[in-house]
């Protein structure tokens, strides 16, 4: 840790509770939570972690993340609050991975550029949105993507075109040892009234359908082909089920909410319960949308 401290130029928080960095407000301590100062700093940290075989995770703002109560014996790196440059050149956009998605959406709307407005209200950073291929109301972040720059564990930067990466519903083939640095988009100029209409529709839909007053990580499961996961969990009779301070929201059964003191094992228990009941009733296996750190996948089945 002393050696790591002497390398990091940005901020390093030791034994930092991950609960402070996830929208669930859940997660045990990580040995080092690091916000690198810039790309050079990031490259040095990645090489150090690689050479010393330190467990390393990348996160954005933790809005799709369940971290175990036992925490992480290793390091977590985030570009949020550091790599936040956003540039426009006509309809061409260059955004660093730490740019908050909400900021990107608003700046595009301001310039009468269409392509990302349906993502209004999706929390998180651009890096997280790309890894998750975040989407809402018919739009996905990968739709107008031109390229993505990533840094590997040796500090080497590569540029990928969208055809180098598989994107599908809440999935990208971006590997867990590639740090997303920045992305370029080519958007389209549009009549502002049309953009506003799409934005309003998305905003309204979100406010009506989602339990936004409570801490959550959005949808816990992906929607299987035929049905919405929330519908299946509801039909399995689990809406409103509580374990400790964690609840399967009675507003939207695919959102599990933390009423204050929930821990990761409470959420894990609800996950197992939902999977079991939905499988028994419908024969459908629910696939997790939330990303997890510190769990054996069997603990969540
Ligand atoms: C209230 C609420 C509503 C939501 N609604 C939606 C919705 O409508 N649509 C939707 O798609 N999602 C939704 N989500 C989920 C979440 O907001 C998105 O998945 C978001 O894109 C995650 O971004 P993040 O920065 O928080 O990523 P994190 O949760 O921090 O990370 C997500 C994944 O990306 C990886 N990652 C993050 N940053 C990097 C990086 N720089 N380099 C490499 N890997 C990285 C992480 O390792 C992890 O695997 C919602 C969440 C909440 C809480």
Protein architecture, described:
The strands form seven sheets. Strands 6-7-15-11-12 form a five-stranded antiparallel beta sheet, covered by helices on one side. The chain has a four-stranded mixed beta sheet with strand order 1-2-5-3, with no helix packed on it. The longest helix has 19 residues, at about 265-280. The protein is an alpha+beta fold. It has three domains: about 1-75, Uridine Diphospho-n-acetylenolpyruvylglucosamine Reductase, domain 2 (2-Layer Sandwich), CATH 3.30.43.10; about 85-210, Uridine Diphospho-n-acetylenolpyruvylglucosamine Reductase, domain 3, CATH 3.30.465.10; about 230-300, Uridine Diphospho-n-acetylenolpyruvylglucosamine Reductase, domain 1 (Alpha-Beta Complex). It starts with a helix and ends in an 8-residue tail after the last strand. The chain is globular. The protein is about 25% helix and about 25% strand. The protein contains seven helices and 20 strands. The site of flavin-adenine dinucleotide has 32 residues, from helix 4, strand 9 and strand 15.
């Amino acid at each position: 840790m002393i050696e790591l401290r002497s390398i990091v130029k940005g901020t390093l928080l030791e034994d930092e509770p991950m609960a402070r960095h996830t929208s669930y407000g859940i997660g045990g301590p990580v040995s080092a939570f690091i916000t690198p100062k810039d790309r050079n700093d990031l490259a040095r940290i990645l090489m150090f972690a690689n050479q010393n075989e330190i467990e390393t995770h990348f996160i954005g703002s933790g809005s799709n993340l369940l971290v175990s109560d036992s925490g992480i014996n290793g390091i977590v790196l985030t570009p949020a609050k550091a790599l936040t440059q956003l540039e426009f050149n006509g309809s061409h956009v260059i955004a660093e991975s730490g740019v908050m998605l909400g900021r990107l959406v608003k700046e595009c709307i301001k310039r009468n550029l269409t392509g990302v407005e349906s993502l209004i209200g999706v929390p998180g950073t651009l890096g997280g949105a790309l890894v998750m291929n975040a989407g809402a109301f018919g739009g996905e972040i990968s739709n107008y993507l031109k390229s993505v720059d990533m840094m590997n564990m040796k500090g080497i930067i590569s540029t990928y075109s969208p055809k180098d990466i598989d994107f599908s519903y809440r999935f990208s083939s971006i590997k867990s040892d590639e740090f997303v640095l920045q992305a370029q988009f080519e958007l389209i100029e549009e009549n502002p009234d049309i953009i506003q209409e799409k934005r309003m529709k998305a905003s309204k839909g979100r406010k009506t359908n989602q339990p936004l007053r409570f801490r959550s990580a959005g949808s816990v499961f992906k929607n299987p082909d035929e049905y919405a996961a929330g519908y299946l969990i509801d039909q399995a009779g689990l809406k409103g089920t509580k374990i400790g301070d964690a609840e399967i929201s009675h507003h939207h059964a695919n959102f599990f909410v933390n009423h204050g003191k929930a821990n990761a094992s409470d959420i894990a228990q609800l996950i197992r319960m939902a999977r079991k009941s939905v499988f028994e009733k419908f024969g459908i296996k629910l696939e997790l949308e939330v990303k997890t750190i510190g769990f054996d996948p069997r603990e969540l089945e």
